[in-house]
Amino acid sequence: MTVDGGGQIISASGGYNCKGTPCTYDVPEEGFSEALSAVADDGYVFTGWEGWGPCKGDAMLSCTLNIDPPFAVLEGDIGLIAHFHATRADGAYQSGISLSGSIQNPAWSPDDGALLFTRFVNGYNIEPADLFILDLENNTTRTLVSDGSANISLPGAVWHADRQEIVFSSSRGQHDEIFVIEDGGTSGDEYQVTDRENKVAYEPSFSPDGEWVVFESHPLDVEENGVITKYKTDGSGQYLALTGENDDCRQPNWSPQGNQILYQKLSDNAWNLWVMDSDGSNHRKVTSGTGDKTDAAFSPDGQWIVYSSDENELEFANIFIIPLTGGSSIRVTNYDGYDEAPSWSHNGQKIAFESYHGEPDDSTGTTIWIIDVPEH
Question: pTM for the complete prediction?
Answer without folding.
Answer: 0.85
